[in-house]
Amino acid sequence: MNRLHVLDTTLRDGMQGLEISYTLEDKLQIAHALDDLKIDYIEGGFPLSNEKEAAFFKEVRKARFNHAKVLSFGSTRKPGGSADSDAHVGALLEADTPGVVIVGKTWLAHVDKVLRTDEEENLRMIADSISFLKKEGREVIFDLEHFFDGYKDDPAYAVRVLETGTEAGADVLCICDTNGGTLPSEVARIMSELPQDRLAPLGGHFHNDCGTAVANSLAAVEAGATQIQGTINGWGERCGNANLCVFIPNAVLKMGYEPACAPQLSHLTSISRFVAEKANIIPDKRQPYVGTAAFSHKAGQHADVVAKAGSLMEHIDSSLVGNQRQILLSELAGKSTVVEKISKYGEFDKGDAVVADLIDTLKTRERDGYEYEAAEASFDLLVRKALKTYHPVVQLRNYHLESYKAHQTPSKTVGRIFMQAQGKELMGAAVGIGPVETLDHALRDALAPHYPFISKIGLTDYRVRVLNPERASAAKVRVFITSTDHEGLSWDTVGVNENIVEASWEALVDSLEWYYNEYCVDE
Ligand SMILES: [Zn+2]
After folding, report:
1. I want to staple 445 with a disulfide (CB 3.0 to 4.6 A). Which of 4, 26, 78, 428 is the partner?
2. Residue 178 alpha carbon to ligand 1 centre in Å
3. How far apart are the CA of 216 and the centre of ligand 1, in A?
4. 3-class SS at 495?
């Protein structure tokens, strides 16, 4: 078996990317999605860097992961100290993960100018830190920072660093192209010069500054690496990391490797879009394998060939990576997705009328700008409506909002809602900072006496995306809302409208109606 391990660093290196930030809840959801994908290792972050990171590891300890090992990340001990009393190494232990990723220097220029120590002490720092963590029972992945630049500068020292890591007991020596300036041919040459038979297994960590991070990862695997590190969508520091959404299918489908995630390959497109929604970044349509354009064909003769013999016009079957061919045959792929998604409500067949109805609804809604990859709760409500098992909570009569600002005082919004629920006419009122908060509070004000569950749930995240910016202020917006309950359950809903308040209202109502239907109705 051509075994290969995949380490995802979306939650660590990925967080260094421009315009990327994830909430604690996002990080947990992404970690679980990576676990479902059967990624072997998830680098969770640097536990000493801030409270959010420390809280993440606390939550991870309580959570259940079926396959992935969540790892903490940190550096070797400080020069002149000892590993057992070093704050960074201590924080790695405190994170209480089954394994750790520990980064050390390989490039003498960095040892001298950044660490301000000598080459022998750098080796002692590496040896001490690894053997201490091994003694504490941790799996240790040793990241050799700037390995390729260091090797080009002084190959003998770079090899000594590898040997030191091996002797200290590292489980994997991950050679890093930290500056991203290395080309695939150099990766192949340098790796062929390493004494691999007397070293611990090698891994590769590549940055995309030359646009070759995936190519370098593939070259590394061919040259003997058994672990590759990368991120979902390739987002990370500067130009990013090796894109796992491209690397994994290349390794599996083109090179015959069998990482644990190979059987889950059809989840790749959805995880790519899920992470994009969490990062609030518009996914690259032209991304290989998982982009919406990856298997799209314009109408005309070409499309006709695709319809008759798709394999002639596409390099792989799009369903292998969970993507779908656009035009003509998309309905077919859509049907099986819908059948799979609604299987929790009963047994359905592709031919069932309800499946066709849902496809129609989805098509219309997606054309209108809705997206359900990261709004499963709204999708669930569509299913319930199609199956006629939906119980509405809110029937709106009208809402009224007024924002005002005077002189230097902060702006305020007052709002009132009139609605019907449980056969009664209800009214709610609130004052908030902005219209969405006010609407949320007024809605709660009206419903709380009649629906006690309202007090258990709350908004935790709110994201807005402009869908057609060329229309300027008349553009449509898509609003995503994340809600959670007291027990930490979280769900996402979506609304679309030209009016941001109306889009938010739709996502708000979906949020509480989903919870009500899922947990408060006896069916
Ligand atoms: Zn990196």
Report:
1. 428
2. 5
3. 14
4. strand
Q: How many CB atoms lie within 10 A of CB 22?
A: 22
pLDDT in tens, 180-238: 999 999 999 999 999 999 999 999 999 999 999 999 999 999 999 999 999 999 999 99
- What is the distance between the alpha carbons of residues 49 and 34, in angstroms, rounded to a whole number? 23
Contacts of 186 (CB under 8 A, 6+ apart): 148
* Alpha carbon distance 288, 242 (integer Å): 13
> What is the DSSP pairing of strand 202-206 with strand 395-404?
unpaired
Question: Taking a C-beta distance cutoff of 8 angstroms, is the pair 27, 11 a contact?
Answer: yes
Q: 242: CA distance to ligand 1 center in Å?
A: 9
Q: What is the dihedral of CA 381, 387, 389, 393, to 10 degrees?
A: 40
Q: Which residues pair with 99 in a beta bridge?
A: 71, 139
- The structure tokens listed for 208 are 């995309």
Q: How far is the CA of 9 from the centre of ligand 1 (A)?
A: 8
Contact call for residues 462 and 444 (beta carbons, < 8 A): no
Which pTM value belongs to this model? 0.70
Q: Closest Cα to residue 394, out of 287, 514, 231, 481? A: 514
CATH topology of domain 5-279: TIM Barrel (3.20.20)
Whole-angstrom distance, CA of residue 256 vs CA of residue 1? 9
Superfamily the domain 395-520 falls into: Alpha-isopropylmalate synthase LeuA, regulatory domain (3.30.160.270)
